[in-house]
Every structure is written in structure tokens, then in C-alpha cells.
Amino acid sequence: MPLTLPNLPYAPEALEPHVDTATMNIHHGKHHNAYVTNANKALEGTPFADKDAVWLITHLDQLPADKMGPVRNNAGGHVNHSMFWQVMAPAGKGGGGTPSGALGEAINKAFGSFEAFKEKFANAGATRFGSGWAWLCVNKDKNLEVCSTANQDNPMMGKDIAGCGGTPILGCDVWEHAYYLKYQNRRPDYMAAWWNVVNWAKVAENFAHALAGNAWYEVKKTADGKFMFNLKGGNNEVVLTSETYNDLASCNAGIDSVRKSAQDTARFDVKTASNGQAYFVLTASNGQTIGKSEMYSSPAAMEKGIQAVQRASGSTWVEAV
Length: 321
Prior knowledge:
three-stranded antiparallel sheet, PH-domain like, minor pseudopilin epsh fold, alpha+beta, 11 helices, disordered C terminus, seven-stranded mixed sheet, 10 strands
């Protein structure tokens, strides 16, 4: 289905005084909404109109030449902002403090200390010329690194496009629309205040997903009050989309059916679409359809999707979109 604007996980005023209410309302309701609208407009009537945003930005080379730029900018903006809202929380109520556990240890290992990491991250954002993002990423060697990208580029686009690569687990928007109403041209002041609202629990969750590379379940409540789930890969790309369920218990039962697929109690039915691409349908042992995958252009890519389903673990609740 077309891309949709996610709800904020907190009230627009919840990040005060570090991020002001007016900025949050404009940033989410105007800027992010515009990225969603423009991405959908660019893809309307194409075979890519129902693709997941992460799939789009990681497969730019498969898009028609006249769609690559608009999708890079707008689907990129959608992916970036969707993470941005999630990695923040009200100060003292999930926001601020220091990371602990495996994430804290990894930061100390990679940068020497948490303060050294903050300095390097802040410098990446402060020195980004014009507009862009500062990122904390898990690289291909499963190590943490800091980088920055221009405009709405994302490290998942790859180094050749974005200038750096990896799976982002924390991102800070350093476009002026993220801070100018309160901080004017004082970007370093904005970034210093931003640490007070960083949701380290969510960043740790992102770190665990990126490190494991495993698929995970994202449960959603639909506009009509029903439930469904996406099975997402290590880069948050959608691997499998479920049917809708009348209640959460039934949805969880569907997830259990996917988990049991590793023990062959469900089957993968491979089908070919009219455009020649293939997809698979996950079918429970009683014949009920659990969900269907994205389209794949090669058997090797499909096999990776099936393997992601077979090793899926964990779940995340996401509010209605």
C-alpha cells in the first residue's frame, strides 16, 4: 500500500524544552508529511507503488531513471524521519541518560567512552555542510561507526550513493527545519540539547536487530481496529506482510505460525506474478494463508527472504498508522 505518515509516539509538546512544540508540529505534520506525499506521487501508477520505503531506498538502481531522484529524496526523508521520532522520548521519561548493556559496551569499545562518542557524533552533525543527518551505524563488520549524510540520504543506500554505509541505529536531523525556530543558526546548541531526549532503550533495540541481522515482527493496529504484522529483515525492510486479524490474540497466533515454519509446520508456496517476478506465500499446516512476501527478481534473493522468515525472532508493538 502507499506510504503513510506514522503517528508520533508522544505528544508534540512532550520533548520541551529541548525540542519545541512549534517545531515538532511543523516538522512532523508538514515536512515529514510532504516526503510521504511526494514519494507516493512519484511512484503512483508504477510497479513500485506498494513497495516498502526501506526496500525503495535500498533498490534505487531498480527504479526508472526519472524516479530515482524523487524516491531517493522523499522515501529517504520518510525512512529517516520515521526512525528519528522513535529514537526520541521525553526527558526523564525514556529520554536522556546513558546507554547501558551491550550497546554501552559497544560504544565504549568503538570510541573509547560515551563522552568521546558524543563528541564525534556532534562533530559529524555540526560539520555537515548545508542539510543532512548524523548517524550511528552498525557496519558490515558488526562494529559501530559515526558518519553523516547529505540531504535525505541514508547509510542503507550504500557508500556509493550516501557517502557511508551500514545499518543506522541512531540518527539526528540537522536540517534547519529541525531546530531553527528555537536555536536559529546555533546547530551545536541544538545537538547538545538533543541528547536529553535520546531514547537509548530504542537505540539498543535497533542495535540488537542490526547486530543479529535477524528478521523481527512489527505488529500494527489498522485504521479499522484490526491487527496485522510485518516481518522485517535486519535493515527493517519488509519481508512478509500478514493477513489482517480481528484481535491481537489471533495476530499473535499468526506470528507463532511463522515461528513454527522453521520446524516445517508451515509451508512456503512459490508463485510467479504476471511481470515474471516471483513471491512466496506462507501457508499454515491447516491451509490458512499467513501472509505473502515482497516480489523478488531472482531465486537467490527469494531464498534470502525465506531464510529471514525461518530465523525470525522478537516482536515490536507499533501504534496505528
